[in-house]
Amino acid sequence: MRLVLLGPPGAGKGTQAALLSDTLKIPHISTGDLFRANISKGTDLGKQAQEYIDAGKLVPTEVTANMVQDRLEQDDAADGFLLDGFPRTIEQAELLEKMLAEKGLHLDHVINYVVSEDVVVERMLARGRGDDNEDTIRTRLEVYRTETAPLIEHYQDILLNIDAEGNVEDITATTLDALDK
């Protein structure tokens, strides 16, 4: 099963990804983890990403997409994967579709975790991270609405909307039911 997780920051994607990955026996592929792994291993892509990060810039789509493509070519992803953090834009979605099409593959579903902005703010403030204040959180939500939310329409034919305001176990059960697993 090839899946993408969508949802605003604080929707619980990372938590659900870990649980779903374990249940479905497919790797959870997070762009944050890919960046850290490539940088720590000193790969060419990691060095490129580090240059942008050190300059305080966003890592370009091309570098991120190349990291994702390398990861999808590993043996454990042959029978499926769960992408978290990629794609974030329509441009990235089109690159992913091209990568998969070259192998005769496609996404099975895109899971969209739906949660209200107030719940997101409450959850993120409760984490107690230094960079999580209400203004920062609301700015991140605005970036999500502008850049990533258009993917909801882009993927409407394979989209599964999941209410992400309950407890973790209920959200996981609802997701698995929607996937018919």
TrEMBL record:
<dbReference type="Pfam" id="PF00406">
    <property type="entry name" value="ADK"/>
</dbReference>
<feature type="binding site">
    <location>
        <position position="36"/>
    </location>
    <ligand>
        <name>AMP</name>
    </ligand>
</feature>
<keyword id="KW-0545">Nucleotide biosynthesis</keyword>
<feature type="binding site">
    <location>
        <position position="166"/>
    </location>
    <ligand>
        <name>ATP</name>
    </ligand>
</feature>
<keyword id="KW-0418">Kinase</keyword>
<comment type="similarity">
    <text>Belongs to the adenylate kinase family.</text>
</comment>
<comment type="pathway">
    <text>Purine metabolism; AMP biosynthesis via salvage pathway; AMP from ADP: step 1/1.</text>
</comment>
<protein>
    <recommendedName>
        <fullName>Adenylate kinase</fullName>
        <ecNumber>2.7.4.3</ecNumber>
    </recommendedName>
</protein>
<feature type="binding site">
    <location>
        <position position="31"/>
    </location>
    <ligand>
        <name>AMP</name>
    </ligand>
</feature>
<feature type="binding site">
    <location>
        <begin position="85"/>
        <end position="88"/>
    </location>
    <ligand>
        <name>AMP</name>
    </ligand>
</feature>
<keyword id="KW-0067">ATP-binding</keyword>
<keyword id="KW-0963">Cytoplasm</keyword>
<keyword id="KW-0547">Nucleotide-binding</keyword>
<feature type="binding site">
    <location>
        <position position="140"/>
    </location>
    <ligand>
        <name>AMP</name>
    </ligand>
</feature>
<dbReference type="GO" id="GO:0005524">
    <property type="term" value="F:ATP binding"/>
</dbReference>
<keyword id="KW-0808">Transferase</keyword>
<feature type="binding site">
    <location>
        <position position="129"/>
    </location>
    <ligand>
        <name>AMP</name>
    </ligand>
</feature>
<feature type="binding site">
    <location>
        <position position="127"/>
    </location>
    <ligand>
        <name>ATP</name>
    </ligand>
</feature>
<dbReference type="InterPro" id="IPR000850">
    <property type="entry name" value="Adenylat/UMP-CMP_kin"/>
</dbReference>
<dbReference type="GO" id="GO:0044209">
    <property type="term" value="P:AMP salvage"/>
</dbReference>
<feature type="binding site">
    <location>
        <begin position="57"/>
        <end position="59"/>
    </location>
    <ligand>
        <name>AMP</name>
    </ligand>
</feature>
<feature type="region of interest" description="NMP">
    <location>
        <begin position="30"/>
        <end position="59"/>
    </location>
</feature>
<comment type="function">
    <text>Catalyzes the reversible transfer of the terminal phosphate group between ATP and AMP. Plays an important role in cellular energy homeostasis and in adenine nucleotide metabolism.</text>
</comment>
<dbReference type="InterPro" id="IPR027417">
    <property type="entry name" value="P-loop_NTPase"/>
</dbReference>
<dbReference type="InterPro" id="IPR006259">
    <property type="entry name" value="Adenyl_kin_sub"/>
</dbReference>
<dbReference type="GO" id="GO:0004017">
    <property type="term" value="F:AMP kinase activity"/>
</dbReference>
<dbReference type="GO" id="GO:0005737">
    <property type="term" value="C:cytoplasm"/>
</dbReference>
<feature type="binding site">
    <location>
        <begin position="10"/>
        <end position="15"/>
    </location>
    <ligand>
        <name>ATP</name>
    </ligand>
</feature>
<comment type="subunit">
    <text>Monomer.</text>
</comment>
<dbReference type="InterPro" id="IPR033690">
    <property type="entry name" value="Adenylat_kinase_CS"/>
</dbReference>
<feature type="binding site">
    <location>
        <position position="92"/>
    </location>
    <ligand>
        <name>AMP</name>
    </ligand>
</feature>
